Amino acid sequence: MVDAESHIRRGHPIIFGLLCFFAIIEGIITAWLVSRYNSHDNYPSNSARDRLRFLVFTSWWTVVFTAVYIGAFLADTLSFITSIASHGAWLIITWIFWLAGAASLTAAYGGGQNCSSSDLIYCNQNMAAIAFAWIEWIIMTVALVSVILIGSAALRRGDRLSSGLV
């Protein structure tokens, strides 16, 4: 089990660091879009407005919680925050947020736009927001599957899910 523990010790900060990094990028892009559209009152549609605002929330939600999880994990505190159950619950909720945000923004723009022939204002930034939302969802899926596998192994060993990841 030492091998699995070393993989978790190395992998956790990497995967959560990637989640935080790409959530910051998505948060900056979507916050900029919302700011520009708000100042000029020229959203392409109400659905695009609502979906961009939801992605702003989801991005910063992810940044805050990944920073907390990285800090607790690196501090090696045996608390509820570092438990398998806590990671699983947060990842499931956040996975749903990213799936809903990425899919709904993609749908709002008809699956995407060819910006060279589109009249969508801030087209490249909107397409970047879609791309980074899907990237974040993919990384979130990897993290969620990893925690499910770790949790399954813990249950097979007879450990509790309220115990730490390692």
Structure characterization notes:
The protein has 166 residues and is mainly α. It is built from 4 helices and no strands. The model has no long low-confidence stretch (mean pLDDT 89).
Low-confidence stretches: none
* Strand composition percent: under 5%
What's the total helix number?
Answer: 4
Question: Major beta sheet, specifics?
Answer: none
Average pLDDT over all residues: 89
| Global shape | elongated
Rg to the nearest angstrom?
18 Å
Query: Share of helix among residues?
Result: over 70%
Record field, number of beta strands: 0
Give the ordered list of helices and strands.
HHHH
What distance separates the N and C termini? 10 Å
Transmembrane segments: 12-34, 54-75, 87-109, 129-155
GO cellular component, one term: membrane
Subcellular location: Membrane
Main location: membrane
Could you list some keywords that capture this structure?
single chain, 166 residues, mainly alpha
Please specify the SSE layout and strand pairing.
Layout: H1 2-40, H2 46-75, H3 84-108, H4 123-157
Helix pairs in contact: 1-2, 1-4, 2-3, 3-4
Overview in brief:
The chain is mainly α and 166 residues long.
